[in-house]
Design a protein that fits this description.
The complex is a heterodimer of chains A (about 230) and B (about 90). By secondary structure, chain A is mainly α. Chain A contains seven helices and two strands. Chain A has a two-stranded antiparallel sheet. The longest helix of chain A is centred in the last third of the chain and has 42 residues. The chains are: A mainly alpha (about 230), B mainly alpha (about 90). At the A-B interface, α2, α3 and α7 of A face α1 and α2 of B.
Chain lengths: ~230, ~90
Amino acid sequence: MRAAALTTFRPSIGERVPAWLAWAAITASMYLGFIYAPPEQTMGDAQRIMYFHVAAAWNGFLAFGVVCVAAVLYLWRGERGWSRVVYASAEIGVFFTSICIIGGSVWARAVWNVWWTWDPRLTTTLLLWFIFVGLLVVRGSAEGDVARERLAAVIGIVGFFVVPIVYMSDQWWVGLHPQLITMSGFAMPGRMVVALMSSFAAFTVFYLWLLGRRLRLVALAEDVAALRERLG
Amino acid sequence: MVGWSGRAGLIVGGNVPVSPLWWMFLGYSLMWAAIVLYVANLGRRQAALHRELEALAAAVDATAAEDAAPAAGSGAEGRGPAPARPAR
């Protein structure tokens, strides 16, 4: 690799377009959530936290689903590219789950008068978060160690099995968490559904942009590690 | 104003003295702070790695040039000095 061949980092058009698309989609979803959707009659405006909270939860599930698929492909084919996807998507999944927990905590304080309670949905979500934080710790310390990368992949597959448990927890066990999205549909008026769907779409675009960006970062870190090793 | 048919409304009831707008702003402020911090952190990490990569690549080039210099001086590589003519 030649130093002259390296250019100063500047995002290309290919990076900027998805970024603007993601920010525009989030802005549009916020308009729908704040203006278009009506306030809930009991909770008032505090209920609007749901539009980011639920969309973040959905994207956490999506990210962990991608981790699971990439982990299976990595263990099956052994291609390092899939291990990078495991690492990148797991980090973004933890990020979205953190947003979900933060927003949910403020909503809980407004509505239940507590920041946190050991409700089945909350508890299983926290468990999911810890599993994938564990994955990040293992994969982050791998530094080319294939055994650790494989262990991280196994954690990703096992961790994904917690996702349906999180989703079904408030139906299997008695809890406080509202059941707004069930197998039979949405338990809310149409305008709220539109706002929520737009948040889902916006966060999904945001996830895809973050995934691309995070994957480039993992590849860059591996290039740096390879050069360090070459120099001794 | 419309109501959810979920369970939250039953738990809260109608007379809980909350200021919903305040909680909405707090919730969105914290969630946005997390988003901005994460995206900024990605950018910072990427810029730092680029800087390190450039420095390491320059060091690799310098090492390669050092390795090549003695070889060029000895004539082991390239054209080197012309061979002596055999005596008649």
